[in-house]
Write a structure and sequence with these properties.
The complex is a heterodimer of chains A (120) and B (353). With 120 residues, chain A is an all-beta fold. Chain A has no helices and ten strands. Chain A has one domain: Rieske [2Fe-2S] iron-sulphur domain (Rieske Iron-sulfur Protein, 3-layer Sandwich). Helices cover 37% and strands 12% of the residues of chain B. Chain B is globular and about 60 Å long. Chain B starts with 5 loop residues before the first strand and ends in a 5-residue tail after the last helix. Chains A and B meet through loops of A and helix 8 and helix 9 of B.
Chain lengths: 120, 353
Amino acid sequence: MSSRTFDIGPAEAFPIGEPRRVAVNGRALAVVRQPNAIYAARDVCPHQGARLSDGHATGTALPCLPGEEIVFGKIGEILVCPWHGWEYDLRTGRSLIDPEKTRIRTYPARIENGRALVEM
Amino acid sequence: MKTQAVIDADAHNYINSIADLLPYMSERWQTYIRSSGMQMPPVSHLPKLYELAARRDAWPPGGGKPGSDPDFMREQLLDAWNIDAAVLNPLVGVSGIRNLDLANAAMRAVNEWVEAVWLSADERWHASITVNAYDAEASAAEVRRAAQNRRFNQVLLLVRSHAPYGRREFRPIFEAAADMDIPVGIHFGGGTGNPITAAGWPSYYIEDHTGMTQAFEAQLISLVCEGVFQSIPSTRVCLIEGGFAWLPALMWRLDKNYRGLRSEVPWLTEFPSEIIRRHFAATTQPMEEPEDPAYLLDIFKMLDCDQFLLFATDYPHWDFDAPDKAIPSVVPDDLRQKIMRGNALKFYEFQNL
């Protein structure tokens, strides 16, 4: 089935780094705009159903060995569930702890002519 | 009736008193101990109800404490039960000696006593290396020295410590064990002044004994979360005399918390339960004894690792597990054989079997 492009509003309706919930084509999406990207994902954590749009977009501690400096990376690319703290990579929808089995559906999104667009 | 040859992953040899260690100590410390009348500090705090926590029939007829006579112990344990390898864990309160130099001298003396009195007495005896938990650097050096004799096939820590063993202060001990290619055993007991339960001091030995699993949980959680197995990937740990039925629930809980708290410990890049199954073993004694023995099969299934369990008697203690009775008949033969012998063969890599 081919995807359709939906206009979900003006870009400025999505403040940088603050997740927003929008209903598109019968689905609830969590949308996060960052300075150079905009992401859209199903707004349901597969764990216990929390709205991911109530969580926060942030970075994460990157893997390292004990005693090494802990680097905070993937800044702006991680969406954290507001209830139990599960971390999702907004670019792929994959969770950081169990990327094969625990993931959220993501949808291609972009900003064009000041409008936020999502393909579903 | 003779049973099939088995391996005993936990038996105890005892000094009769600190005098047994004097031949292995310098003139300075011999004199110090004699003139002060010092005795070895205990490794537990509450009266154990049975003197020295021993089976009544384990007192050697020739005198001395249970576990102190190599000939009697050979007869009552190795020969009686067809045990062709046993790991001796001498429970001597080295870490309870506050003078670090004396504690380190006692540490080395215990290991030299084990080698001279026990390892030379019968080739079926193998032993853990006693260390001083308060001095990890000295302990690491002692591990590298003692393990030159390959019948020292484990490092011995007591589960009730002054701090959990995953903390970096203990890392030299684990590095030394890995360098010598031997596991670290964490055994029931210990006591450093910390309350012996996480809720404070209990009144009775039955509480002490049952609550020991708390300390095992704390050590396991610490070793995993502090990243010992990422820093030293060849580390193997045996949980000795701590039971095992609590492990599935702990793994579930730790995995669940990992999902939300991973970023605090970013060296963990896989579920804690996977690390536990790869790096840990546990001895069976004291076997959990559910009202329906078949429940144990469910626990084994939850552990999902048939290499995990090593049979142990805990001789000469009162809660000794008999090799022919401890593992209930519902356990299938192939798994029983692994528990009674095969798993220990792999885990300890006995040089002479």
